[in-house]
# Entry
Amino acid sequence: MHRGAHTLAAEATELYEGSRSKVARFIGAEPEQLVFTRGATTAINYIAYGWGLNHLKEGDKILVTIMEHHANLVPWQLISRYTGAELVYLELNDDLTVDTSTLDQVLTDDVAIVAFSGMSNVTGALGPIDVLAEAARSVGAISVLDGAQLVPHTPVDVADLGVDFLAFSAHKMLGPTGIGALWGKPERLEEMEPTEGGGEMINTVERNESTWAPVPHKFEAGTPPIAEAIGFGAAVDYLDAVGMDTIAAHEREITAYTLDRLSEIPDLTIYGPRDVTLRGSAVSFELGDVHPHDIATILDQDGIAVRAGHHCARPLMKYLKIPATARASFYLYNVPEEVDALVESLYKARKLFGLT
Ligand code: PLP
# Structure
């Protein structure tokens, strides 16, 4: 890689750095603003430890929403332990979008970080990105956008988002597992300390101290996931070729169809906005009092893959007063016939569990 002088190493470096350029371009960024990470989780942890540890102090607040994935909660809880900062929450409207009407109460000068999701992996609700990015700016806080569910499904340009950091994962956008990205505004990345030390991320190393390589390399210690990063580049090439506008339009259509069809089913509760302009394609539901795991098992017998459980969002489940949901999610490859099959299978489940 970057160290090697021979042809194969130079080729690997070129492909790896070429992939960085592709992924950066995909979100409207410059390559030097994009750090490869193990995924969205690692990206958020880098921000928490690399920025939070050096900037947060006792009494500071980290503003999050109740719909966050654990990946955008637990790192902040961990960093709170070290710094004495405290988490404060925005809750939800009746349609399960984020309730920003309480911002006035929670947005104090003590808020140092506003961390929120672009789209809930449970309810599909889109996050109020503009409002929360502006709220963060208004009190001198930084904003962290969990884009794990946003970047795969909609065109994203970091120049329009107005946030300081963005995290996302390749495996949710047709890429390999074990790779994702952290984008940051240049000045924010400069403010961040590396959270991992080792080879590749240094400039000089003496017996007792070292200096760092320039951003983004100072955050990429050790041998990087070269193959995975190159795969990530191939995935964004494919998504670019299909077109993110086309993908977003397709998902909106299939989500609207799903919401319509699921609404026909007696005893079925949908958890999430009905308005497709307020949501993405993750559709959570419950069928009567049948446990979502049982639903998932019945659907699986018909070859239909849904996810059942708390979806790594336990505080949200508690807020909704439910233990779990079943969740269907759609992407560019899904077709309406699959929605029909889901509905048919759910009718079968109703019969099986004696819901008449
Ligand atoms: N944020 C959201 C909204 C997610 O749905 C996920 C994954 O399910 C993550 C963060 C974490 O992503 P990863 O496990 O790829 O790091």
Observations:
- Residues 39-41, 69, 71-72, 117, 121, 146, 148-149, 169, 180, 312 surround pyridoxal-5'-phosphate (CB under 6 Å).
- The chain has a mean pLDDT of 97.
- The CA atoms of residues 65 and 89 lie 5 Å apart.
- The two ends are 63 Å apart (CA to CA).
